[in-house]
Every structure is written in C-alpha cells, then in structure tokens.
C-alpha cells in the first residue's frame, strides 16, 4: 500500500482553501467549479479539502459531520528553518497557537498554528534523532 492523499473534511471550504493555498502556499493540483473539493500539492502526498456536507451526501447521510469541540487533527510539515517558516506563515495571516519551542521528547523543535475548521498546522525541525 502507498498513501496517496490526506483528506480534510471542512465546514468552510473557502476559508480552508485560502489558508492552505494562499497562506501556507501549497499549489493547486485541482479545484472543482462548485468549491466543494480541491487537491493541493503537499510534497509526497496530496492534501485534499472536501466540503463536509458534500461528503455526508455522498455517503447517503442527510446531515454533515457533527461539529467537534477542540482540535480535529494535525497536519505536520518538516521544515529546514523552523523560525523562518513560522514567522513567514504568521506574517501571511496564520494564527499562532505555539511559538517555536523544543518538543518535550527532545527530538525536534516545533511550532503550531491554527487552521480553519479546527485543524492544527505543525511545523517541525528534526534534531536528527526523530523516532520512526
């Protein structure tokens, strides 16, 4: 098996697309004309955005997924320069959740930003002893 993509079910497609495309800078592979689905280039995999209500209808549900309290998931990117990448994203409008800091386990420095629909964007710079 090979991971092809990672799909985020989103309630506000426009805000999510703006964040991942305009602020984070992922290039668009495909975006449908109804603004319910997009594929973005995230390196070795695609990051897909799918309107949650469209997904619910596609599986025969009349209700979209329930709104969750707290964070729904974390999308993690390894970066070469953590402080620079973090500062650039904050400058472009990404809300900061945690400034660059040492991970408690000591294997990396990390920074966290909030993305639309309850997702978190984590940036990390490995110290070379990342547990796999």
UniProtKB/TrEMBL annotation:
Source organism superkingdom: Bacteria
Segments forming domain VOC: 2-126
Pfam families xref list: Glyoxalase (PF00903)
Identification of the protein by name: VOC domain-containing protein
Lineage, opening ranks: Bacteria, Bacillati, Chloroflexota, Ktedonobacteria, Ktedonobacterales
């Amino acid at each position: 098996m090979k991971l092809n993509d990672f799909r985020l079910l989103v309630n506000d497609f426009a805000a999510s697309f703006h964040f991942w495309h305009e602020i984070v800078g992922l290039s668009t592979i495909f975006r449908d004309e109804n603004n319910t689905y997009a594929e973005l280039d995230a390196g070795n995999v695609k990051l897909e955005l799918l309107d949650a209500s469209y997904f619910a209808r596609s599986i025969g549900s009349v209700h979209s997924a329930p709104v969750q309290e707290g964070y729904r998931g974390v999308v993690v990117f390894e970066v070469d320069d953590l402080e620079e990448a973090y500062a650039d994203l904050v400058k472009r409008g990404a809300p900061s959740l945690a400034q660059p800091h040492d991970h408690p386990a000591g294997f990396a420095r990390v920074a966290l930003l909030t993305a639309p629909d309850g997702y978190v964007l984590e940036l990390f710079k490995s110290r070379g002893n990342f547990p796999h």
